[in-house]
Amino acid sequence: MGKRFYEIDTSADGTFEWIFEDSAGQIDSNPRLELGFKEWLQDGGGIFHISGKPGSGKSTLMKFLCTHHKTMDRLKHWSGDKNLVFASFFFWKPGNELQRSLLGLVRTLLFHVVAQCRDFIPEVFKEFWQPSEYSVWGTNPPSLALGSREIMNAFNRLMNNENVFADHRFCFFIDGLDEFEETYQTYTALLNSLSDWMRLSQGCVKICVSSRELPIFLQRLDGRQRMRLQDLTQNDIKKIVQETLDQEERAVQLQTLNGYEWDELRGEIVNKAEGVFLWVILTLKALSEGLHAAESIRDLRRKLDSIPKELRSFFNFILDSIPEDQRKKALCTLMFAMNQAQIRSPQLPGSCYLLERASPLLYSFLDEYIDDRDFVRNLALQPTDAADLERRGVIANAQIAGRCRGLLELRRTESYKSGTTIEDFDSLRYRVVFTHRSIPEFLDDHLSTGSQELLAGFDALDACIQTFSAIVKTISFLPGYEYRNRSKMRLSLLIDHVQRSRTCSTRHFESLDELDKALYLRQSEIWDNFSDVSWLDFSSHIGRSPMSILHYAAGCSFHEYVAWKVGKCPRILQDLNGLECLIHALTPVVDKIRIEPERVMKTLKTILSAGVDVNRVPGNSRFIGHKAPWQILLTSRRDSSWMYMEKPRRRCYWDCVELFLEFGGDASCVDEKWLDHLLDDNPGNAQKILALLRITEQDNSVDMAGLIGRDGSTSD
Question: Is the dihedral of CA 664, 667, 669, 672 positive or negative?
């Protein structure tokens, strides 16, 4: 939940300190402002709005405020003898659904609140609070399935509880209101929610928000509690310009030779920036190239004059400045980066930095893909070569910096151990990221309209799969638990990304097959008798779970790939392999993860149509507790959290029951308690399920009269 917070750049030393000192400057920039920010923290209420242009440093400022001791000191003065509860949330449009939705906001705030005030839990989660289920010495409390409804109800209960506000005051910092995005919700709905919290708390909740200067926010949020960031950061920008240029040897020479003209040039940079840090950073990178070429102050000024003030025009200027012979690969690199950024995953900790979605090692294979779209099929499996990996890292880093003109940057990744048998790869200890989140927004328009000829033949999704395959073929696997788990996470996220793209084709399936072959060979190197052990037996008896594209595809309801694979290899679902795939395909139904009912049903039908037996128990595997897929489906209904499950998931469950019965589900597994659940829930297909149970009764000689006969409406 805090991924976005850690992705944001930390402010440069000495910047933003004015917000705790210079209230007069804030009031000068907005004559309607009644309280400066520090006064609002200490004595104010309501919503304080920090507005600003794209790239003006809003998120960096919000991170600075959330971590500064002066923020907490002044808020404690405001809370007085009441307990202060502080929480923050950073909206992020490129992130996953929770990072850009009202549910994500509420979920994060609620988490921080109950983490600080555990005595709130029995009240806000009272429908779940069952102390009798917890053992005094127990270490495994019952798991809860908290859906969106339960989360929203819990937070509303918190905001409506007068007893809570008798002893507590709450301050929330919410960054990036403009990055809020929901299919059925608007900015108005978001602002209404904030207003409701303020109204219900009677002054015990206040909120600091930041956003771009969109009309909805300027109209709905009180202008008497707003500051425009770009009007207040000139000294911060001046400091950054000076410190950055002072690091250049040529800049020091020019200042020594002609200090007056040099100071004028620096002043022009500050004035032309108009408070936009991103513009300054990109401009300094452009001027740095001139300094390295020993250009004069006059040359540098001409370059500065040619740089547009408006950010989108500046982005076009940057792309136009890329040499013709590098432009195709530069644009392909940027498109590849956009595709990689869509893989919604946390930064992989521990020993797998080489498998990161943004690893320079991925980018090191990109040139090979651009030159030959089938390069990975001709790439041999090879042992890890430390010198080659280091060389690749150095070249990739130089190419990214040179070609992309500052639109992409390399960020140092700290505290990583090696992901292979090699102790350290210094050139690969970086992540490739966009310099600012507004860059992908611009590129999305630019690459789809103005660069089609140069991008012809480049498939970013296919490149994503093949570069990952190349890493698998280049790096030997380790048998370590952490490495294996992180590798599996990265692989499952890649497959999920491919199926979510909705643009996958036979070519992508073939590339996934090539990856599958490489994974098989790598795993065969480190695990004995790998080819003779099934997925489930391997998992239960050896304590390791192998990586297979087909199994992961079934688990994430990637029915297109499953159908293609079964069509290509009809025998692939025979014996235990089909049983294992069926169990994985049930995962979204029984494990309460993200579910898309239509995709789940199509995946299950594909596997069942291949002849997989729903009643077969897979040997003596402990992985599924001696249960057939049909038994797994039935017993998952007995979970105590069922009554709080969202309706789409419940409907999908009953659709799966109907499907399994159509494919021969054994009625003898159905007990009276399960049937009570069916009759109580009364799904739309209840009659069909009961009718199928009658049919199955005849097939299996099971007496269902005592179970079905209670419902007079089920007569034929």
Answer: positive
To which residue do tokens 């069509």 refer? 567
What are the residues whose beta carbons fall under 8 Å from the beta carbon of 163, sequence distance 6 or more? 123
Q: Which SS3 state, helix, strand or coil, does residue 612 take?
A: coil
Question: In the prediction, which pLDDT does 589 show?
Answer: 83
Residue 138 CB coordination number (10 Å): 9
CA atoms within 13 Å, Cβ hemisphere of 380: 2
pTM of this structure? 0.78
Distance (Å, rounded) from C-alpha 222 to C-alpha 40?
Answer: 13
* Helices 277-292 & 259-273 angle (0-180, nearest 10): 150
Tell me the pairing of strands 430-434 and 47-52.
unpaired
Give the total residue count for the chain: 716
Q: What is the pLDDT of residue 402?
A: 85
Are the C-beta atoms of residues 511 and 376 closer than 8 Å to each other?
yes
* Residue 234 · residue 228 · CB < 8 Å: no
Is residue 84 helix, strand or coil?
strand
- Can you tell me which residue has the tokens 């021969």? 664
In terms of C-beta density within 10 A (0-12 exposed, 13-18 middle, 19 or more buried), how is residue 681 classed?
middle
Find, among 370, 85, 47, the residue nearest to 211 by Cα: 47
Among the listed residues 578, 607, 10, 642, the one whose alpha carbon sits nearest the alpha carbon of residue 277 = 10
Helices in 293-323 by DSSP H: which ranges? 297-306, 311-320
Q: Please state, in angstroms and as integers, the Cα–Cα distance from residue 570 to each residue in 147, 366, 513, 583, 660, following that order.
A: 38, 34, 15, 19, 21
Instruction: Quote the pLDDT of residue 284.
Output: 92
Q: Which residue is it, tokens 């995953």?
A: 345
Helix (H) or strand (E) holding 322: none
Here the tokens at position 294 are: 């020993």
- Classified as helix, coil or strand, 170 is strand
Quickly count: other Cβ atoms within 10 Å of residue 455's Cβ: 17
Q: Could you tell me which of 105, 52, 577, 70 has the C-alpha nearest to residue 273? A: 52
Mean pLDDT in consecutive groups of 10 residues from the start of the chain, 716 residues: 65 88 83 92 95 93 95 96 96 84 94 93 80 52 68 91 93 95 88 93 94 94 94 93 90 88 93 92 90 91 91 88 90 91 54 56 92 93 83 88 87 52 53 86 80 85 93 78 60 85 88 91 75 44 60 91 92 84 87 79 95 83 67 77 69 92 90 83 86 70 50 42
Q: Is 247 helix (H, G, I), strand (E, B) or coil?
A: coil
- Residue 180's nearest CA partner among 188, 168, 170 is 188
How high is the pLDDT of residue 648?
A: 78
Token reading at 173:
């910092």
Q: Encoding tokens for residue 298?
A: 């006059």
- Output the pLDDT for position 180: 93
**3-state secondary structure at position 598:** helix
The pLDDT, as a whole number, for residue 131 is 63
